[in-house]
Q: What sequence folds into this?
């Protein structure tokens, strides 16, 4: 099997199927919405026909189905009359259903099948009507990431079955309670690797920014509903992951690198879709880090929030957006960043009391709170950095800045707390994630994000330094990680004769 | 000169002259907010069309004419009749039977090898199966994008090439791909672009004979960005290559770098890829010409005869833009409003404004015209940009921002999927205008502008009580090329502003007095009213209605009713082409279509354009031109010194031919001259779009603007058939005065026909300035009898 014609065995559906397909997606929306409404007052996780019926599957399934439905609707109108429209829409619907199954499956075999079919159908979507060279190089990188992830998932499932003698997630999690550490370490590590491969962590990220030969709706679905399936997997297996600190450190380290690479590369992109793609890489890095520091409710919040924002951003990428604000000199930005961060930290005491979210509960929560504070600092830079000397503008900026410093901690803490309460019946009361390794897992991303924020604020000054400029130049191509990976792949997975020019 | 036909790009002698010549072949390309049509063959207009199409096609690996299959299907459908076939056969010196066999598929079509020169990287690729050409192209294009985006929206800083030298000395991207030592190699290059090109041409041993073709081939690889750069040089001096030279220098440098640094692969060499031969242009051009004859002669037959009669005082006068979309609306308005007269004029109404508004600035006039008036709306408030956009770009804030605002995004997502964007009037239509014009223009300037506007429209003493000045604009959502649906004569903006300014000028009491002294007899009860024709929904709205005096209330009510009726008929006529049922509720469905963020075809804009008619409206009244004709009013009897005709042929006609050739090329080869599938468009700031993962800016029209969803051409590629109602002598004199227009006609970029003002004949201007009648006298007489009114 070659990555060039990966799974061409998928059925070719009839063109007329599109309307039913959209109805199916809206049916999924209604069904998972109903489950959510039911589970809110009576949060009893159930397993039925290989599907988990609980709050996690309800909210994740609802989200995937909504995004899939909107994307399907968008595509069905923008491709009206296109001869391949039926096939395209069916593929979109099929991918959505597979992502839905990945979110909802409680049976490991069903999960594995949905996981593989999700890769396959996404691949079909990515090569839809596309015959360029770069898609094909990207296809090989994606092939590598997908197969490695699948292997890791299969191995993890095998080990779970070996130890728990069951393919039901609930039973496996229950069996894991009593499992010795040496049995848990490989399972958790394999799950983490599978999640990293799905959620475009370095070095499995290199294909994502080169997928723009696919129509816009494909990107919307991919970035909103598919790459975050890795996060769902981690949340589902949270009780196992959180008990293996080594896996958490690995996850956190990879996530941190992904944040840094994604954020630096994203700043250098000029094409809107590439900007969005590198932003996804960074955001997925953060989501994975949240899982690594055992902040699973926050991760769920993040993957839904990011998905919604990214789907919207892709679908409306034709509009010329309003520009980002001008920023001032470096010293002024740094002062604002510091002041805003401190102001936010000062507001966190009351915010913590009101919302019941305790940033000192564990290192992970502390790191999360710190990122919120840094975010407030950056909001201060944006609000006050370039407002000039006009009194009215300064007053308005100041009002915005203070409002954000007060509101952001309250809002974020309330959201984290609510997500925690929401998810508690599904993942149970996790042990407090402390200890040196968990502290390390929390410190790495916090330091990295703080450094990124400092560099971003000091950009007007750093931009004059040769080393920094050189770094920025390399960041454009994501530090050439993709090209270097290609050189490696050339050695043992040679490209076909047509791979560079044709891809079908 | 057979050599120049085979190799039109090979006759230079001096290096710098060759460089400039090649750079000037690149047409300008405007940004998205003023996306106006440009003739993609602009740089070639001084060459005969056949040679130019070959040269451009070979350099861009493009098709520049429809394929033989297209003509064969027209032959099968009977659009090309036997007479046309015989004409075409004569034109390409073939036996008619032989040509017929070719169209029937029984004889082979003559093919020719792609001429021209390939770049050194291409030659290397062909030998070794590598991909250096595309990689160096991408690298050069990506750098142009970076340099342009540094000053996004204003002129790029000079020194594109010098800045590249510094950047390329740092960038490892191509080294990672295999060009080891590139950074050091770049450091040794000359700092001056022209010097660098000259040196490298020597180093690469390019012969003077190949020089122009080689350089143009290189430039073709970054055609989009070169065009954008050219746009800034073009604004200052049309004969100045500007920074296109810098772009070329980067391409030459990278091409030479491949020769110097690319490792020769050790693995098996695939069979050399050769350019595929293409169907000979000579036969296709002959067929194209005779196809155009079929269309032109049919129109000519209905243009001869005595013009219709005109009422003394029209019930309504409405001036529309020459845009082909106005033709449908005008026809229906005249049909439903007895005694109404419509006028065709460039939609900026002669008001060449440089507008500096609160919501953005721009030139509101054709790009061929320099703005003569600068109008400032008021104090420009500095745009602080969006806080949210800043946060989402900040590493740190972006993470909590999506967590807290994500639910809002989800709501917006669902909302936009189910609710269409409701129309709201543009800022241009509603912004307060009191005193704006008066402050910006001296009384003398106001009078001059008004007088030249009326003279050019041929309005001297016949004025209705209400005279509409009707601009036009499109409406679409989520569409980077939205400006392409707007008025090209207003520089890719809506026409509301120009129409409002024009109406204000003509209603101004002091201007009216001045006009009277210059011989314009405007009745005191004549009122000029601005209006806007929204082409996506075919609604016409009156603007500044509050300023219309109560005495005209009756006229306004009546006019509005007529416009509504005409709108219904126009929408019905258009529905079929949009794949919509022409029944009730069409207006609502079209409005939803225009407000739909997923719609790739909000309207067909200027597709199917083919004719330009400069004549009295009486000649074309009642004629169904199917929205394919640019109609400009011209009355030769009011134009003794030919100044109006000269203006029409050198400005609106040229703009129409730019539009026409843009549609032609975008249809025939959308991958080379168009901007491709809208679903793959990837915006670069506010500058333009690239396709998918590509780096080069795309020029021309999206695929969805020229093709139906089933992949069939909606636009029919026909050159512009220009009909002018004037004596052949007058036209010849104007061509004598306007060398640019003469070039277009002489070289076959447009085809020129003269309608005799007495209606006795229509003549086609052949090469060597001979005029050949295309409609014989009997047919003319028969037609005149039929049309004569009592």
A:
């Amino acid at each position: 099997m070659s990555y060039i014609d990966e799974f061409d065995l998928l059925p070719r559906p009839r063109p007329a199927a599109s309307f039913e397909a959209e109805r199916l997606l809206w049916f999924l929306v209604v069904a998972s919405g109903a489950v959510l409404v039911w589970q809110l007052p009576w949060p009893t996780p159930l397993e039925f026909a290989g599907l988990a019926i609980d709050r996690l599957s309800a909210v994740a399934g609802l989200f995937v189905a909504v995004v899939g439905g909107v994307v399907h609707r968008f595509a069905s109108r923008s491709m009206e009359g296109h001869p391949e429209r039926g096939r395209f829409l069916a593929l979109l619907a099929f991918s959505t259903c597979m992502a839905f199954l990945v979110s909802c499956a409680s049976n490991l075999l069903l999960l594995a099948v949905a996981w593989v079919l999700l890769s396959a159908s996404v691949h079909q979507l990515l090569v839809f009507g596309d015959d360029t060279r770069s898609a094909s190089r990207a296809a090989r990188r994606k092939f590598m990431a997908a197969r490695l992830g699948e292997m890791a998932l299969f191995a993890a499932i095998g080990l779970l079955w070996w130890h728990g003698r069951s393919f039901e997630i609930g039973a496996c999690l229950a069996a894991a309670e009593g499992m010795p550490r040496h049995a848990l370490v490989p399972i958790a590590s394999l799950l983490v690797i599978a999640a990293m491969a799905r959620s475009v962590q370095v070095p499995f990220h290199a294909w994502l920014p080169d997928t723009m030969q696919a129509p816009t709706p494909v990107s919307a679905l991919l970035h909103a509903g598919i790459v975050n399936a890795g996060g769902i997997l981690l949340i589902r297996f949270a009780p196992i992951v959180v008990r293996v600190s080594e896996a958490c450190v690995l996850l956190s380290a990879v996530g941190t690198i992904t944040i840094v690479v994604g954020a630096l590369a994203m700043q250098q992109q000029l094409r809107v879709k590439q900007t969005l793609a590198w932003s996804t890489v960074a955001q997925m890095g953060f989501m994975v880090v949240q899982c690594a520091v055992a902040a699973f409710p926050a991760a769920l919040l993040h993957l839904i929030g990011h998905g919604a924002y990214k789907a919207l951003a892709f679908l409306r990428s034709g509009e010329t957006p309003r520009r980002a604000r001008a920023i001032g000199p470096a010293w002024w930005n740094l002062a604002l960043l510091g002041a805003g961060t401190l102001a936010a930290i000062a507001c966190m005491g009351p915010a913590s009391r009101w919302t019941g979210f305790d940033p000192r509960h564990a290192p992970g929560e502390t790191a999360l709170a710190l990122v919120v504070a840094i975010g407030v600092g950056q909001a201060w830079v944006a609000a006050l950095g370039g407002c000039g000397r006009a009194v009215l503008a300064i007053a308005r900026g100041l009002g915005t800045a203070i409002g954000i410093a007060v509101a952001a901690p309250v809002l974020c803490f309330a959201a984290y707390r609510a997500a925690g309460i929401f998810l508690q019946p599904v993942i149970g009361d996790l042990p407090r994630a402390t200890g040196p390794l968990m502290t390390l897992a929390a410190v790495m991303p916090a330091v990295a994000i703080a450094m990124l924020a400092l560099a971003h604020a000091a950009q007007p000054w750093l931009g004059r330094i040769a080393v920094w400029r050189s770094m920025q130049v390399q960041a454009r191509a994501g530090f050439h990680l993709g090209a270097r990976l290609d050189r490696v792949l050339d050695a043992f997975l040679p490209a076909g004769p047509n791979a560079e020019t044709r891809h079908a | 000169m057979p050599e120049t036909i085979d190799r039109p790009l090979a006759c230079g002698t001096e290096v710098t002259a060759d460089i400039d010549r090649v750079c000037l072949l690149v047409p300008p390309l405007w940004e998205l907010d003023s996306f106006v049509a440009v003739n993609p063959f602009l740089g070639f207009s001084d060459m005969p069309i056949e040679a130019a199409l070959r040269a451009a096609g070979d350099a861009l690996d493009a098709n520049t004419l429809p394929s033989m299959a297209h003509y064969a299907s027209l032959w099968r459908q009977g659009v090309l009749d036997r007479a046309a076939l015989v004409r075409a056969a004569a034109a390409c010196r073939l036996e008619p039977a032989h040509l017929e066999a070719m169209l029937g598929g029984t004889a082979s079509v003559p093919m020719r090898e792609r001429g021209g020169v390939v770049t050194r990287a291409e030659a290397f690729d062909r030998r070794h199966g590598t991909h250096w050409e595309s990689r160096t192209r991408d690298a050069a294009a990506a750098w142009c994008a970076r340099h342009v985006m540094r000053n996004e929206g204003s002129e790029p800083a000079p020194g594109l090439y010098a800045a590249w030298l510094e950047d390329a000395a740092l960038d490892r991207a191509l080294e990672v791909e295999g060009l080891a030592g590139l950074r050091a190699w770049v450091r040794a290059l000359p700092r001056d672009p022209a010097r660098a090109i000259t040196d490298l041409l020597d180093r690469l041993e390019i012969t003077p004979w190949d020089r122009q073709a080689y350089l143009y081939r290189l430039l073709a690889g970054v055609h989009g960005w070169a065009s954008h750069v050219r746009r800034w040089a073009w604004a200052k001096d049309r004969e100045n290559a500007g920074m296109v030279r810098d772009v070329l220098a980067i391409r030459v440098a990278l091409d030479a770098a491949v020769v110097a640094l690319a490792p020769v692969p050790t693995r098996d060499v695939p069979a050399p890829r050769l350019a595929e031969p293409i169907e000979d242009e000579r036969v296709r051009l002959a067929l194209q010409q005779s196809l155009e004859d079929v269309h032109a002669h049919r129109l000519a037959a209905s243009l001869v005869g005595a013009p219709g009669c005109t009422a003394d005082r029209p019930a309504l006068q409405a001036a529309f833009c020459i845009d082909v979309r106005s033709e449908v609306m005008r026809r229906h308005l005249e049909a439903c409003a007895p005694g109404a007269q419509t006028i065709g004029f460039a939609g900026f109404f002669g008001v060449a404004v440089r507008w500096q508004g609160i919501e953005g600035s721009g030139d509101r006039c054709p790009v061929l015209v320099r703005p003569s008036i600068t109008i400032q709306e008021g104090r420009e408030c500095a745009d602080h940009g969006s806080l949210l956009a800043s946060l989402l770009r900040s590493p740190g804030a972006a993470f909590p921002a999506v967590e807290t605002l994500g639910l809002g995004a989800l709501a917006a997502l669902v909302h936009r999927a189910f609710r269409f964007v409701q129309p709201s009037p543009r800022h241009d239509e509603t912004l307060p205008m009191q005193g704006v014009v008066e402050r910006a223009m001296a009384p003398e300037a106001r009078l001059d502008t008004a007088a030249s506007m009326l003279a050019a429209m041929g309005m001297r003493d016949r004025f209705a009580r209400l005279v509409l000045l009707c601009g036009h604009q499109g409406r679409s959502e989520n569409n980077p090329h939205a400006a392409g649906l707007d008025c090209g004569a207003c520089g890719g903006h809506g026409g509301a502003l120009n129409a409002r300014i024009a109406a204000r000028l003509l209603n101004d009491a002091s201007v009216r007095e001045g006009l009277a002294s210059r011989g314009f007899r405007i009745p005191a009860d004549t009122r000029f009213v601005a209006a806007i024709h929204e082409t996506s929904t075919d609604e016409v709205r009156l603007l500044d209605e509050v300023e219309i005096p109560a005495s005209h209330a009756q006229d306004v009510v009546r006019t509005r009713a007529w416009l509504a009726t005409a709108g219904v008929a126009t929408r019905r006529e258009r529905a079929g082409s949009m794949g919509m049922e022409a029944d009730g509720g069409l207006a609502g469905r079209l409005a939803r279509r225009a407000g739909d963020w997923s719609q790739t075809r909000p309207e067909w804009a200027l597709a199917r354009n083919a004719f330009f008619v400069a004549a009295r409206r009486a000649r074309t009244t009642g004629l169904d031109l199917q929205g394919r004709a640019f109609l400009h009013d011209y009355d030769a009897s009011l134009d003794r010194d030919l100044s109006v005709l000269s203006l029409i042929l050198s400005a609106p006609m040229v703009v129409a031919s730019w539009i026409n050739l843009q549609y032609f090329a975008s249809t025939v080869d959308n991958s080379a001259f168009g901007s491709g599938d809208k679903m793959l468009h990837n915006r670069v700031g506010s500058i333009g779009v690239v396709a998918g993962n590509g780096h080069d800016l795309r020029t021309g029209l999206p695929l969805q603007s020229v093709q139906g969803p089933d992949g069939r051409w909606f636009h029919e590629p026909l050159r512009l058939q220009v009909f002018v109602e004037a004596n052949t002598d007058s036209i010849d004199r104007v061509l004598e005065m306007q060398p640019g227009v003469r070039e277009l006609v002489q070289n076959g970029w447009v085809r020129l026909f003269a309608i005799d003002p007495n209606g006795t004949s229509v003549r086609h201007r052949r090469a060597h300035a001979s005029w050949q009648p295309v409609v014989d006298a009997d047919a003319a007489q028969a037609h005149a009898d039929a049309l004569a009114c009592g």
User: Anything to note?
Assistant: Residues 1-15, 496-504 of chain A have pLDDT under 50 and may be disordered. Residues 268 and 491 of chain A are 30 Å apart (CA to CA). Chain A touches chain B through 105 residues (CB under 8 Å).
